[in-house]
């Protein structure tokens, strides 16, 4: 089971032998502790719950859940066959190797309340021919005979802050001493945000 939790640190770049720039995201991945093993017989599906980071204070329910384990900050679940993993085991970046193709899931940057041009890519209106102050407006939001706005109509609203998965990212290099993964391309989220790396 190739999966781990991590923290997005920064973006940088490297160069190929032919001189092409390769954008890279640096992720501090692990060490992660196995907090719970879910089985098909007991829970209805197989999964592994990992914990990442440390927390100073825990609630009583969380203390009971993490009994005899470190005070883990973030818990995330990966579905699949646990294999030989047991509660209390530790995983680090060595589960991956350079060249692996992975998926990365995180919470995208929040952009606040945005209009339809930024949020949905609307083209807006012409800047002349009677469109004095309507250049970035959405235009009509319904038909005349329907007499209501259809469900799912794209409008202005809160943008970002959503769960996003980026697929087919290549692991360029691994730093086992610093627990860091160097992934080609962009990863969702702001700096120091939690990400899930898995195959």
TrEMBL record:
What are its GO biological-process terms? translation
Q: Which UniProt keywords apply?
A: Ribonucleoprotein, Ribosomal protein, RNA-binding, rRNA-binding
Record's SUPFAM superfamilies?
Answer: Translation proteins
Question: What Pfam families does this protein's entry cite?
Answer: Ribosomal_L3
PANTHER family, from UniProt? 50S RIBOSOMAL PROTEIN L3 (PTHR11229), LARGE RIBOSOMAL SUBUNIT PROTEIN UL3C (PTHR11229:SF16)
**What functional role does this protein have?**
One of the primary rRNA binding proteins, it binds directly near the 3'-end of the 23S rRNA, where it nucleates assembly of the 50S subunit.
Protein name, UniProt field: Large ribosomal subunit protein uL3
What species is given as this protein's source? Candidatus Uhrbacteria bacterium RIFCSPLOWO2_01_FULL_47_24
**This protein's encoding gene:** rplC
